[in-house]
Amino acid sequence: MVEIAWLPSFETGLPEIDNDHRKLVNSIRHIEVALKGGDFKKCATLFADFMQQAKDHFKREEAFLISIDFPRLESHRSAHQRLLDMADKTLATVSEDLDRDEATKCLEETIYFLLEDVIRADSDFKSYAQEHGLI
């Protein structure tokens, strides 16, 4: 199983976005604890909570991107939507009775989800904002 920890490289320099990211990492840790404890129903509940946090985060992040006139906003929005679509499929899976392998897959997909947003997508707007003196 993959474990996740907050790394300084995840920082965007935007307190609200970074706080969201830390909360998402913390949510993943809670999912991991439930999984390790064999509480698969709790894993599903926590995953649903994680998804709501991610949706709220994406709204805040996209509002920031609009405010800085980010030129690749639509591409970033599309990336968010792809991640949400993938996560919705995962949520449908974890809402069923899970075994350990399925629950582990759920956690790994959740980690991938977060890292895809934080490392790939957000590094793009972070670079743009830094180049334009916005952060």
Structure description:
The protein has 135 residues and is mostly helical. The chain has one domain: Four Helix Bundle (Hemerythrin (Met), subunit A) (Up-down Bundle), CATH 1.20.120. It is 77% helix and 0% strand. It contains four helices and no strands. The longest helix is centred in the last third of the chain and has 32 residues, at 100-131. The termini are far apart. The relative contact order is 0.18. The model has no long low-confidence stretch (mean pLDDT 83).
- Under the CATH scheme, which architecture would be assigned? Up-down Bundle
In the predicted model, the low-confidence regions spanning at least 5 consecutive residues are none
- What is the general shape? elongated
Mean pLDDT: 83
| Class from secondary-structure proportions | mainly alpha
Cα radius of gyration in angstroms: 15 Å
Largest sheet: none
How would you sum up this structure in a few lines?
This protein is mostly helical.
Top keywords for this entry?
135 residues; mainly alpha; Four Helix Bundle (Hemerythrin (Met), subunit A); 77% helix; 0% strand
